[in-house]
């Protein structure tokens, strides 16, 4: 009797990588691999990678370095890198890392099984990083595995056409391609039959869904069709580009009862000079107008965002404008990043003479301001009774369940497992940094 084959998978980066990792799991299982939770126990190690910042890329190479002794102990071990670092580095990764066997780019997961067989049968190290044309990509949108989870991602668009000057994504994910709406709807219906109750529509820029195809419906129209699917409780989406946030899409927050009252709308900077240098396609004033329109149609909506500190050329006055924008918008949460130059992007060629210590000082000031704003939201929610979609057992243990509010806030509370998959009223009784403690109302 042959020994069971095992694989270890680690995912870095955004929601698109999470979707790709599900596809990797499906491929490995079709080849009779069983998932394990440690690289020490694996016959196959897969890193699904992100290169949005230099730190993320360094982390991948750091992990690869730790796998070298495992490969020396067990030469039959197969080590693979997929995703954005694989796409950016290509065959260079094989040259840099002699114990690496497979480099599989963002458009090539459909070749992963064949690459794995080549390594197994011929010990042939291989790299596949070719971009596919739009027609091929439309046919190869990831098929989802059956699941007993309450919430799932559904991919609606891949790639990005914006080419913001700081961003590597269009270079490693390719141009925008929308998935046929009929296919999206069929997947949503299939997920409902499996017991899923919330879906998050994902893509690098979901707002531009259907714009390049000519014969496809708009993203707002897609939301309306999904809202009508029986059995579905909640809809979320990410990520939105502010310049493509149409009036039709804004109106959905006031019209669709299943659409959660939360939007992630990355602003990146609050000064027009920086926004122009970033090539974001909107002004500070236009962004604030979009926020005002969202709150007009849905007064309870909460907004989260991404902000970059220390973009090349950012002055003290520019930074203060970003701080002022945070005070005006009052985000529920922001994800703040120190600027990281990415090779091949336009911003990497810009002069950057701001000292690292000053950038860090600005970063810390912004973080302190946002923590105060976020804390005010969390404390103000204590005592409220809110509908919570119960997703499963809490990581806090003690027999607790966890779920999320419409604002995507985690709530832990005592309750029977029979509640999983249902929306229940929960009173929030205590606020923590990353979650609330609640009790069934």
TrEMBL record:
Its EC number is 2.8.4.3. GO terms for cellular component: cytosol. Keywords: 4Fe-4S, Cytoplasm, Iron, Iron-sulfur, Metal-binding, S-adenosyl-L-methionine, Transferase, tRNA processing. Gene3D superfamilies: Methylthiotransferase, N-terminal domain, tm_1862 like domain. It is an enzyme of class 2 (transferase). Residues 5-121 form the MTTase N-terminal domain. Residues 146-376 form the Radical SAM core domain. GO terms for molecular function: 4 iron, 4 sulfur cluster binding; metal ion binding; tRNA-2-methylthio-N(6)-dimethylallyladenosine(37) synthase activity. [4Fe-4S] cluster 2 binds at residues 160, 164, 167. InterPro entries: Elp3/MiaA/NifB-like_rSAM, Methylthiotransferase, Methylthiotransferase_CS, Methylthiotransferase_N, Methylthiotransferase_N_sf, MiaB_methiolase, rSAM, rSAM_horseshoe. It comes from the Bacteria. Its main location: cytoplasm. Residues 379-441 form the TRAM domain. PROSITE patterns: MTTASE_N, MTTASE_RADICAL, RADICAL_SAM, TRAM. [4Fe-4S] cluster 1 binds at residues 14, 50, 84. It is found in: Cytoplasm. Binds 2 [4Fe-4S] clusters. One cluster is coordinated with 3 cysteines and an exchangeable S-adenosyl-L-methionine. It catalyses: N(6)-dimethylallyladenosine(37) in tRNA + (sulfur carrier)-SH + AH2 + 2 S-adenosyl-L-methionine = 2-methylsulfanyl-N(6)-dimethylallyladenosine(37) in tRNA + (sulfur carrier)-H + 5'-deoxyadenosine + L-methionine + A + S-adenosyl-L-homocysteine + 2 H(+). Its cofactor is [4Fe-4S] cluster. Monomer. Belongs to the methylthiotransferase family. MiaB subfamily. Catalyzes the methylthiolation of N6-(dimethylallyl)adenosine (i(6)A), leading to the formation of 2-methylthio-N6-(dimethylallyl)adenosine (ms(2)i(6)A) at position 37 in tRNAs that read codons beginning with uridine. This is tRNA-2-methylthio-N(6)-dimethylallyladenosine synthase. It comes from Syntrophotalea acetylenica (Pelobacter acetylenicus). The gene is miaB.
């Amino acid at each position: 009797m042959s020994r069971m084959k095992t694989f270890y998978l680690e995912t870095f980066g955004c929601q698109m990588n999470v979707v790709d990792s599900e596809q990797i799991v499906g491929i490995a299982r079709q080849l009779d691999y069983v998932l394990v939770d440690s690289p020490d126990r694996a016959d196959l190690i897969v890193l699904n990678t992100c290169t949005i910042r230099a730190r993320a890329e360094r982390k991948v190479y750091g992990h690869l370095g730790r796998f070298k002794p495992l490969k020396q102990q067990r030469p039959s071990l197969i080590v693979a890198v997929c995703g954005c670092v694989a796409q950016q580095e290509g065959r260079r990764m094989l040259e840099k890392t002699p114990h690496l066997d497979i480099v599989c780019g963002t458009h090539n997961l459909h070749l992963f099984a064949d690459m794995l067989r080549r390594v197994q049968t011929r010990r042939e190290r291989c790299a596949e990083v070719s971009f596919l044309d739009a027609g091929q990509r439309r046919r190869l949108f990831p098929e989802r595995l059956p699941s007993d989870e309450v919430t799932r991602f559904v991919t609606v668009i891949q790639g990005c056409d914006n080419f913001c000057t700081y961003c590597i994504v269009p270079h490693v994910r390719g141009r925008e391609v929308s998935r046929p709406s009929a296919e999206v709807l069929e997947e949503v219906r299939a997920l409902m039959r499996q017991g899923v109750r919330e879906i998050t529509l994902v893509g690098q820029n979901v707002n531009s869904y259907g714009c390049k195809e000519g014969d496809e419906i708009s993203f707002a129209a897609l939301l309306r069709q999904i809202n009508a699917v029986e059995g579905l409780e909640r809809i979320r989406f990410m990520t939105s580009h502010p310049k493509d946030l149409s009036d039709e899409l804004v109106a959905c927050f006031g019209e669709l009862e299943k659409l959660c009252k939360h939007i992630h709308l990355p602003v990146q900077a609050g000064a027009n000079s920086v926004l122009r240098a970033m090539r974001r396609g909107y002004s500070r004033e236009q962004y604030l107008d979009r926020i005002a329109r969202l709150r007009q149609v849905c007064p309870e909506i909460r907004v989260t965002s991404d902000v970059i500190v220390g973009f090349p050329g950012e002055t003290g006055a520019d930074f203060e404008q970003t701080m002022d924008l945070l005070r005006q918008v009052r985000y529920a949460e922001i994800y703040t990043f120190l600027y990281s130059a990415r090779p091949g992007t336009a911003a990497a060629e810009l002069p950057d003479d701001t000292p690292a210590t000053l950038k860090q000082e600005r970063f810390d000031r912004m973080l302190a301001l946002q923590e105060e704003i976020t804390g005010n939201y969390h404390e103000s929610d204590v005592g409220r009774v809110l509908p919570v979609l119960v997703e499963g057992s809490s990581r806090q243990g003690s027999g607790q369940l966890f779920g999320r509010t419409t604002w995507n806030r985690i709530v832990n509370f005592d309750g029977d497992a029979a509640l999983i998959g249902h929306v229940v009223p929960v009173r929030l009784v205590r606020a923590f940094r990353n979650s609330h403690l609640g009790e069934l109302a």
